[in-house]
């Protein structure tokens, strides 16, 4: 079951804006974009697909969980992605990471264990293409 093989990504309906600081856990449905700072867990609720975008200047200090997670900023805490995890070049993750599919760009840093949700003969790891080729 591939993220790309499905219809469209769920809509981003909520935003933690730049300069905004949230203390406490956030629960959301569909999509959430974080441009500010969250101290607390950020968890997608419900059975449907969800998308969480943590932008370049965003910081999350807590647990992160959604179907599709895109990290460009900083996360200090465990990350759980049930479908697709994208670690952009400026991503900084301090904590263990669980994923179904992983796309990690050059420059992204993870201080913790990377572990697929399903143990398979071949890991579900996709390296982003380098510009050197």
The biggest sheet amounts to: 10 strands, parallel
Using the alpha-carbon principal axes, give the shape.
globular
On the 0 to 100 scale, the average pLDDT is 88
Radius of gyration of CA atoms, rounded to a whole number = 14 Å
Write down how many β-strands occur, each being a DSSP E stretch of 2 or more residues.
16
Explain briefly what this protein structure is.
With 133 residues, this protein is an all-beta fold. It has strands at residues 12-16, 21-23, 26-28, 31-34, 37-39, 42-44, 51-54, 59-61, 64-71, 74-76, 79-87, 92-94, 97-104, 109-111, 114-116, 125-127.
List descriptors.
133 residues; mainly beta; 10-stranded parallel beta sheet; 6-stranded parallel beta sheet; 51% strand; globular
């Amino acid at each position: 079951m591939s993220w790309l093989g499905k219809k469209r990504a769920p809509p981003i309906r909520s935003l933690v804006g730049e300069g905004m600081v949230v203390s406490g856990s956030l629960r959301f449905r569909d999509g959430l974009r974080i441009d500010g700072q969250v101290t607390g867990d950020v968890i997608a609720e419900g059975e449907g697909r969800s998308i969480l975008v943590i932008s370049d200047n965003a910081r999350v200090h807590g647990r992160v969980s959604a179907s599709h997670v895109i990290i460009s900023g900083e996360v200090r805490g465990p990350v759980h992605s049930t479908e697709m995890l994208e670690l952009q070049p400026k991503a900084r993750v301090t904590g263990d990471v669980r994923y179904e599919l992983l796309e990690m760009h050059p420059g992204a840093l993870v201080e913790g264990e990377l572990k697929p949700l399903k143990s398979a003969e071949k890991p579900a790891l996709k390296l982003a293409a380098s510009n050197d080729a």
